[in-house]
Fold:
Amino acid sequence: MDKKEHLLNQIIEKNQDSFSEKELEQIRLAYDFAVKSHDGQMRKDGDEFVCHPLSVANILSDMELDAQSVVASMLHDCVEDTAATLNVIKEKFGKEIAGLVDGVTKLGRIPYSNKEEQQMENLRKMFLAMAKDIRVIFIKLADRLHNLRTIAALPEEKQREKALETMEVYAPLAHRLGIYKIKLELEDLSLKYLDPVGYNDITESLKAKSTESNLLLDAVKTKIRDRLVEIGIESRIDTRVKHIYSIYMKMYSQNKIIDEVYDLYAVRVIVETVIDCYNVMGIIHDLFKPIPGRFKDYISTPKPNMYQSLHTTVIGREGMPFEVQIRTWDMHYTAEYGIAAHWKYKTKTSGKNSMDERLAWVRQLLENQQETDSQEFFKSLKVDMLSDEVFVFTPKGDVVNLPAGATIIDFAYSIHSAVGNRMVGAKVDGRIVQLDYEVKNGEIIEILTTSSTKGPSRDWLNIAKTNEAKSKIRQWFKKERYEENVVEGQKALETELKKHGISPAQIGDNEIAEQILKRLHFKTMPDLYSAIGYGGLSAQRAANRIKEEVSRNGKLSKEALRILEKMDDLPKTKQMPSSGVIIEGVDNVLIKFARCCSPLPGDDIIGFVTRGYGVSIHKTDCVNVVNAMKKQEDSERWIPVLWGDEILGKFSGSLCITSEDRVGLLADVATVLANMKVTIRSINANDIKDGTAVLNVVLETTDRENMEAIMKKLMTIRGVSEVRRCSM
Ligand code: MN
Structure:
């Protein structure tokens, strides 16, 4: 029997009891298919190539994965390395297995490059995001493990490259999925090629100690076993040397020599029940001297990757410290194979809904992870499950991370604004697509550019999802269309300013202009106009700032000042402090709120210096204001005013509610308002024809926000079609 047949027999043997006859038959089919596909191919170590996928299948069988994973692992290099197409696999082995093979093949195409940490993290995330089925990751890990085991035949440079990639991508993946058995071996194998000297140093030291330590460990094992047998606790006890990489890390990161590493040796006790775990812990502490502060209860508080065990470090007779891990068999399988262990378990016990249950379990795991801040990684696994991020490639193989729903435009601008601005089209995996195409995980995206382009179109602002793309597009309009933007922007701002009673002449004042520019971070007024023109700054926002600046400077029109000064001998009002309105530079002015629009704190407001009755405050969008401003002779009487920080008291507001006329409407409105603890001052119903009613409600409110909340609530009443503020 040659090696490949031997490997097949092992696979069959390992799965004999758990796979159905049909599944075992599929394994034999997969064997024939793989042998034929890889016929004539050799590995560097001299084996027939097919021995590799068969060994991977053996690793997965040890993990007790399901038949589909095992079959897929046997076929995992067929698509990549041979002419056999995915379609043939789909035909012969079904959609699911073909999907797994495809997933593994795609992961294999993720280019690895030793880049900065951010790229590595993206790469790890991408692995998960791409492997829609987590079994793809299991296969990929087993694949990598076997490749590393047989890496000795490769040239040294290749060895180091693979080892580094394993250390940075695969081992962290295995760790975070809780698959310790694979993680530990991957780390030890990688270390061997990354730091052969350090690795040998440790293995040699351990070898030198081995006779002595074996004797000691055997004695410890016997001592524990005897006591457990005595009190009738069934157990399995293993002793081992901790794995090389963890010793290495302790020595090098904490600058210790090997004899200073506490837990060089470990004893593992596996028992039937959780209660037994705690009992054994008591016995261990009774038999050996515990080192204070080394007891960890991962049973009551599992690690983020679901690992559970009791840990303690004790000192044996000869003064040799060793770690003891105590766990149940369930915990043991989870510790060895993490998510994978659970996979198998779920498959066995559940029927049709097994996939849902598995996913539910993974989700639960993710939620557990969420509560701990330690595992950045699981956030990314979560990202995959909730899919709020996508990972795509540049043609050069860099991973680009975008929010879900991102389009070609977002991708282009994430590369460089010059790429976005010159874009004329794009290819996804070699196919031409529209610019609003939403990119998907793993796609390779190529942006087609030209040097003679007219730049982005304004529609792109609606297609782009990321702020980065949007702001770069705006940036372009800002630069390329400066003159046009200045004209547009100035027009928009002046219209807006007029609403606040500020004339363009007022901001022409050098001192104020300087303040405004400083406040809004622009160098010149044309820059400010241009920003409004291309949409970088809204005219409304600019006008509000300018209004504040104008009032702060007390630059009221001369006419307004003269009138206000005259009002000094008007009766000083007691309500002044609580009116909440500030006219900068002028104190003690009688303020009254116009009944036509009844402004509320939070509204944009403007003041009108009346002839002898103080200043009346209107909303800037009040119909009366708009009309009155047209009168040239009064234009000097409009002055900018502001709401102060402290506003006390209640304001009257008036609402018009349009509704379908029905019995009980009035009562419903009253109930809603009562529930919100709103005081009603008056409520009138006017019948309008066509079965429509308009209610006029005057009520007490504190500010605009409060009023809006009230309006929103009123909108929920059955039949109500409109609620708006209106004049009293
Ligand atoms: Mn492979």
